[in-house]
Amino acid sequence: MQGVIDAAHRAGTLRRDVTFADIGTLIVRMSRPLPGPFPREVNDGLGHRHLDLVINGLRAGDGPKTELADRR
């Protein structure tokens, strides 16, 4: 995982302030099922949508960015 992160930093496609700890914790949070009785296709669709939102937020680029909060 660290190799992928390092490569993305070198390529300029991942925000420089994103670390292994961020990605690892993010995977855990994204892998939990949503509470409630969602039909499988709705749950899957929401999962893909939310992952797209997260990936877009991780990308480096010229768009507006905010500082990441400190990890505490």
Describe what is shown at a glance.
The protein has 72 residues and is mainly α. It has helices spanning 2-11, 20-31, 40-58. The mean pLDDT is 82.
Please describe what this structure looks like.
With 72 residues, this protein is mainly α. The protein has helices at residues 2-11, 20-31, 40-58.
Global Rg = 14 Å
Name the quaternary structure.
single chain
Helix content: 55-70%
Tell me the structural class. mainly alpha
As residue ranges, the low-confidence spans are: none
Main sheet makeup: none
Please render the helix and strand layout as text.
Layout: H1 2-11, H2 20-31, H3 40-58
Quick tags:
mainly alpha; 72 residues; 57% helix; 0% strand; elongated; single chain
